[in-house]
Amino acid sequence: MPHSAGTSLVSCAELQALLTQIFLRHGTSAEVAAVLAANCASAQRDGAESHGIFRIPGYLSTLASGWVNGQAVPQVQDVAPGYVAVDACNGFAQPALQAARGLLIDKARRNGIALLAIRNSHHFAALWPDVEPFAREGLVALAFVNSMACVVPTGGHKALFGTNPIAFAAPRTGGDPLVFDLATSAIAHGDVQIAARAGHTLPEGYGVDCHGQPTCDPAAILDGGALLPFGGYKGSALSMMVELLAAALTGGNFSFDFDWSQHPGAKTPRTGELLIVIDPGKGAGHNFAQRTETLVQQMRAAGQARQPGDRRYQQRAESERHGIAIDSEELARLRGLAAAPWFSEPAVPRPLA
User: What is the rounded end-to-end Cα distance, in angstroms, of the chain?
Assistant: First the structure.
């Protein structure tokens, strides 16, 4: 794969090992470091740059601020035949999901459906990695997570909702699972940050400035402004639904519910996550994966050439063949973070260029 003189190619395993060392150096447990590194490296591998190594400064500044507990041990509760709850104990959401994953799958296979409610958790990553693994085991999965208040509800005048993504994964015969991960805001917050860093403007209808006026300037959105929901009142209604499922139902904070003002450098929202996992092998859905494939073929016949997840799968294959292309200066900075000693005093790391 062609790459410029200013980039380096690394394997996913090399990047994951490097990120693991960074997290360890900055105060997480070995278990948390391994989960976060795998998540972040997989996003970079699949071309989801707004949720890959771009997030490392935010992770580290949050750890340094004391806002999140990088040593947290999730507490899994077997609530009911189809219900698992996890108190993430002010830790990250992915280790909480990992701790409950086996029990969740067992319940879904036994009962046909199971729910996982995670509370007191920080989710700072793409959502599709939370659901895709279930589809690869023949299960259907949905995930909902809320974040910090940065989206104005339709007709409103101040930020209330988070970007509040929804992810869905379904198995199919003859191909990779169908997977989508979409924010209920007009654009993901990370993509706004990337646009601001690159000096790019955004399309109309994506956000407002600090005065509530429409703007295409990503810096104005970030500086006291807010995002808009996608699709007007439809996206606003979906965002409201995510708040209720990911926060009210799990016992987590609403997007407007937490206060990190005493933790300068904090970037990760302390909210909740809900997952629903379904075993389609029960009842009439036993041929679900084949029916998914039938639907895909009909969508192609109707002119939809690219299916949900295809772009990530294509980039994943490229990365696995040739390596992940990373700006050489960024890679050097990552290696510096991996070698730096961890101090207990808060210190905000320099953002990656």
Answer: 23
Half-sphere exposure of 92 (CA within 13 A, CB side): 27
Q: Rounded to two decimals, what is the model's pTM? A: 0.91
Report the side by side order of strands in the sheet with 140-145: 75-80, 83-92, 113-122, 270-278, 140-145, 166-170, 178-182
278 phi and psi angles, rounded to 5 deg: -125, 135
Q: Which residues are catalytic?
A: 50-51, 191
Distance from C-alpha of 203 to C-alpha of 314, rounded to nearest angstrom: 26
pLDDT tens digits, 309-347: 999 999 999 999 999 999 999 999 999 999 976 554 444
Token reading at 239:
């965002």
Instruction: List Cα–Cα distances, 214 to 59, 144, 206, in angstroms.
Output: 30, 28, 8
Determine which of 8-17, 53-62, 126-135, 335-344 has the lowest per-residue pLDDT on average. Answer: 335-344
Distance of CA 19 to the CA centre of its chain: 17
